[in-house]
Amino acid sequence: MAEGGEGLAAVPEHERILQEIESTDTACVGPTLRSVYDDQPNAHQKFMEKLDACIRNHDKEIEKMCNFHHQGFVDAITELLKVRTDAEKLKVQVTDTNSKLQDAGKEVIAQTEDIIRCRIQQRNITTVVEKLQCCLPVLEMYSKLKEQMNAKRYYSALKTMEQLENIYFPRVSQYRFCQIMIENLPKLREEIKEISMSDLKDFLESIRKHSNKIGETAMKQAQQQKIFNVALQKQNNTNMGRNMYVTNGRIPEERNEVTSTYAFEEEDENEEEVLTVQDLVDFSPVYRCLHIYSVLGDEETFENYYRKQRKKQARLVLQPQPSMHETVDGYRRYFTQIVGFFVVEDHILHVTQGLVTRAYTDELWNMALSKIIAVLRAHSSYCTDPDLVLELKNLIVVFADTLQGYGFPVNRLFDLLFEIRDQYSETLLKKWAGVFREIFEEDNCSPIPVANEEEYKIIISKFPFQDPDLEKHSFPKKFPMSQSVPHIYIQVKEFIYASLKFSESLHRSSTEIDDMLRKSTNLLLTRTLSSCLQNLIKKPHIGLTELVQIIINTTHLEQACKYLEDFITNITNISQETVHTTRLYGLSTFKDARHSAEGEIYTKLNQKIDEFIQLADYDWTMSEPDGRASGYLMDLINFLRSTFQVFTHLPGKVAQTACMSACQHLSTSLMQMLLDNELKQISMGAVQQFNLDVIQCELFASSEPVPGFQGDTLQLAFIDLRQLLDLFMVWDWSTYLADYGQPASKYLRVNPNTALTLLEKMKDTNKKNNIFAQFRKNDRDKQKLIETVVRQLRSLVNGMSQHT
């Protein structure tokens, strides 16, 4: 029962499995079949039995179905067989129709193929035309590029390259010829860079060669412009009034007229076509090169190369020739090259963008300016010719004005001109030293004679001399000064003109120019002329007459200094009331020269007196005098008398001082002759003879050889000799000894030492020649008095030495 119950339970399960197998996709039958084997034992057998029963059921159903539809199937087969016959007929008809159609369509097919072939050709042609139309502009542009290269239109060629690369090549980049063109473009660019750089090098070499001409033209134009401006200003001043430049002499007006005439003549001669830097130099290479490098994107390389090369050229231009200082042409060539260099740079600055900047030109100019100043300072120091220095100054002024017109600062150049001005003054002083020496050498040191009114006016026109007394004299007459005075006065004025030439065009005020002229003139007077006068005065063979004439000349030159001051004031148009006006030092110069001449006169007189004294030949042992003065002394007095007559034109004090100095020196010399240590003995006769000579000296002094002495002032020069000789001639020792030291003493000027020295010389003579023998015989007391006098004199001398 149990097994029967399990069998009943398995049947529904097997049916379920069969239903699943029938309804499930064969790919999923596996799990279902596995459940069959996973069930109870003998389940497989039961399932197979159930499966066979299910199959038999299905076969029965199929058989029933077939039996039900068999007659219809038979009918359909019968009808199909009937249709088969008709189908074969239809097939034959269709085959025949197809054959006919194929025969008829062969011609159509042939024509159709022709049409297709033509359409393909047409399409190909159209495609080729389109491609050619796309390629032709590229080829045309490339051909144009080649033409531009051949025509050396490199900037246009670069633009064409840009168009090819940006516009045309992208359209035909698939073609091989385009790749070839693309590969050629960098080569063409390099070729253009090399060619343009070669053109730039040629340009740089060209402007180096043309710098001289460019600078010369620029300086010439600047000078012409300046001349025109000066002439225009003078014309305006003339229209406003001719009192703008007033002088009381004729020379400034004449010089102005000459200068103005020369300026206009030069302007007329230079009325040519105005050339510019573009007319002298072709700048197209640098423009092309700049544009080419700009297009190539390598502008910085070009700028650096250009600036580097130009700096090298600047160094070459700034290097002077060793012999530049010898001629003005050397300086001119130096300046024109520099001007040409910077004119080109200024032009490049204004016509290009960035190739040359203002900062670059300023840096280059500052470097050049320092070099220029150093070169000029060094080379100008070798110049010894003032005319060359003046021409150098004019060149520097034109050079500075030219570059200033192009915007370059030139203040340092004008500062340099002040240094060169000092050197110019030194060369002028040396030149005028030679001029003054020639004047003094040619001067005859005698008053200027004039025979008529015409000669008198000629001298007056050269030198401002005023003497109403001389004007009253009839002809012929003489000026007190010698010929050198007007010549020196004229040369001083010429020196002032020469100094003024340098001061022109220095952009300085009239006050500064006036001050410079006065300082230069002061140097001329105090150093050059003073030195020449001192050398003239110190000449070993110059005579008293010449010295007297020098004193007279310096007096008149001193008086003329105020006229020189007025002359400077007139040519500079500076008011005399200007507070800071420098005064001329000529007064002190001529005073010093006069004092030196006066001292030389005193020295010459003393030397002449010494020469006469050396001729003295006294017999110091004579017993009796000759009864007349010595010959040498009379000759000396006659010489002094004639000499002092020449002193009539000298200032009174000079003549009086010379006369007093001569008398004092004569007195001193005579005193030294008595007291000479080599003179061992003197007789009373010699003293008496010496007294006669001193009397002649006193007579000369009392004759007033030079007017102006009061009373017996001149005779006081011999007072020492007179009192000494009176003491010995009178033998008044008691009075001398008693009154010694008293202000009212009769022998106040007799020194005890002097008296003792002379007395001992007379004492020695007494011992050897028994000159005092009569005293020993007649009066021994007198001998004792002599001894007493000697002892007292020695006592006085000792007392003086102890007191000292």
Question: What does this 3D model show about the protein?
Answer:
This protein has 28 helices and two strands. The chain is 77% helix and 1% strand. It has a two-stranded antiparallel sheet. Helix 3 (43-150) packs antiparallel against helix 4. Among the domains are: 53-156; 277-408, 5 helical Cullin repeat like; 427-446 and 482-598, no CATH class; 616-801, Methane Monooxygenase Hydroxylase, Chain G, domain 1. The protein is mostly helical and 804 residues long.
Briefly characterize the structure.
With 804 residues, the protein is mostly helical. The protein has 28 helices and 2 strands.
Number of helices: 28
Number of strands: 2
- By CATH reckoning, the class of the domain at 616-801 would read Mainly Alpha
Taking strands numbered 1, 2, ... along the chain, how are they ordered across the largest sheet? 1-2
| Average of the residue pLDDT scores | 79
Query: How large a portion of the residues is in β-strands, by DSSP E?
Result: under 5%
CATH architecture of the domain at 616-801: Up-down Bundle
Query: Helix-strand pattern, N to C?
Result: HHHHHHHHHHHHHEHHEHHHHHHHHHHHHH
The radius of gyration computed from the alpha-carbon positions, rounded to a whole number of angstroms, is 69 Å
Ends distance? 195 Å
The helix content is: over 70%
The name CATH uses for the topology of the domain at 616-801 is: Methane Monooxygenase Hydroxylase, Chain G, domain 1
What is the H level of CATH, i.e. the homologous superfamily of the domain at 616-801?
Dsl1p vesicle tethering complex, Tip20p subunit, domain D
Largest sheet: 2 strands, antiparallel
* Shape annotation: rod-shaped
Q: Structural class of the secondary elements?
A: mainly alpha
Are there runs of 5+ residues with pLDDT below 50, and where? 1-8, 241-272, 769-776
